[in-house]
Amino acid sequence: MQIYWTKINQIIEETPEVKTFLLDCPKDYTWQEGSHLHLALKGFNIGEKPNRSLVRHMSISTLPNEQGVGITTRIKEQASEFKTILKHITVGEEVALFKTHTHVPLKRENKNIYLLSAGVGIATFRPLVLDYLADTDQVAQIHSLNIDSSGDYLFTDIFHTNPDKNFHAEFVNNRPAYYEQVKELATDKTGLYYVVGSDEFLVQTIAVLQEQGITSEQIMLDKHAHQLPDFLPVGENAK
What we know:
- The protein is 19% helix and 31% strand.
- With 239 residues, it is an alpha/beta fold.
- The strands form 2 sheets. Strands 4-3-6-1-2-5 form a 6-stranded antiparallel β-sheet. Strands 9-8-7-10-11 form a 5-stranded parallel β-sheet, sandwiched between helices.
- Helix 4 (199-211) links the parallel strand 10 (192-196) and strand 11.
- The longest helix has 13 residues, at 122-134.
- The model is unreliable at 235-239 (pLDDT under 50).
- It comes from Candidatus Enterococcus lowellii.
- This is Dihydropteridine reductase.
């Protein structure tokens, strides 16, 4: 396993609780849209075993052509040790990147794509949308639906409806409105449904989709293969 140590180049306050950390891109480091990584803070690998409290699984919110590895995360007032350190970290400090993988790349299969996210989960979809807006080939359209009870919606400079590109962006601030809209979107029985958020959010959104007849094969999750059976039924139950 290769560990890339790199410096924080910029810290952007997206909302009062959400920050984007732009990291210098290490030499020979690359990724594609929909990627995630392990972000580790200084001291995580001191001692016989890694200090897991200083490591977190994070989505990359930028594309390689943006000249930086972006990590967007919510940091609440009452935060974990990891988030507390991030809250006070400064430009120029070092962090480590490793285990970069992609489970939710943009599928170009001439189908409609629906991006369903909760809160800061929309950061996973930012690179997919940028990739699509730059090249719409073999994607019929994209519809993004994000629920954020804070009302401080993220990346509205990108996530806004663009009819010329067949891109529609929608934000809601409560669960009933979100689930009603998911049901409406799920009338498309051939679309692809990407879902990003907490495990509870995944389970509840998948239940709504499958009640509307959407199959497991149409649902894309940012999860390892061995985790998928915990969320997506297979066989007879996947109807």
